């Protein structure tokens, strides 16, 4: 829908379609859900407009389209024999050896009529039967299935087993390294905590001795005053 010059009918159609989808197009919410709905509304509007306008243009151009010749049209006019009465035919006339079909060669093209002389009906039927009886029935071609060699499947299974074992060994090695790292980390943490606890206790002990000395000093001064 990239055109800018619209006819009156197209403008009316476009206004009606916009009114139809205006509850999506006028939405002020800009999240992903409503943006997707807006895109779907524009796509639907474009599809409806193109379909309706194309139909109207084709309907307007219908009178200008001339009928095209069909490749199945016949180039010849066949005349049918018209008889006012009935004709009697005997079996000998139909099935006799001298019964010959006369064909008007003017209705055929050279490609459609390769023979230059007429053939008896009975002989033609007899040749057709002999051809059908002598033609052997065709059988479907046999497709040979490719077989894998046993060694290939064994080698493939062995390669898969080796790959699985190597992957298992690598995973076990990784687990061992992770466990060893965690053990060393735990050991270092415990050593740090023990050292920290020792220093804290040493500081508390020093403070306690300091307070004891202060108490003794205060008691000594009180006794001296008395």
Describe this structure in words.
It holds the Pfam family Myb_DNA-bind_5. This is Regulatory protein zeste. It comes from Trichonephila clavata (Joro spider). The chain has 226 residues and is mostly helical. It is 63% helix and 0% strand. The protein contains 6 helices and no strands. The chain has helices at residues 8-20, 22-25, 32-61, 91-95, 121-134, 150-225. Helix 1 (8-20) runs antiparallel to helix 3. The chain is elongated, with a radius of gyration of 53 Å. The chain starts with 7 loop residues before the first helix and ends with a helix. Residues 81-86, 92-99 and 112-119 have low confidence and may be disordered.
Strand-residue fraction? under 5%
Give me the oligomer status: single chain
Number of helices: 6
**Uncertain segments of ≥5 residues (pLDDT<50)?**
81-86, 92-99, 112-119
Largest sheet: none
Which descriptor suits the 3D outline?
elongated
Count of β-strands: 0
Radius of gyration: 53 Å
Percentage of residues assigned to helices:
55-70%
Distance between the termini: 113 Å
Structural class: mainly alpha
The mean pLDDT is: 70
Could you give the order of the helices and strands? HHHHHH
Pfam families: Myb_DNA-bind_5 (PF13873)
Protein name: Regulatory protein zeste
Subunit structure: Self-associates forming complexes of several hundred monomers.
InterPro entries: Myb_DNA-bind_5
Task: Give descriptors for this structure.
226 residues; mainly alpha; 6 helices
Topology (elements, then pairings):
Elements lengths: L7 H13 L1 H4 L6 H30 L29 H5 L25 H14 L15 H76 L1
Helix pairs in contact: 1-3
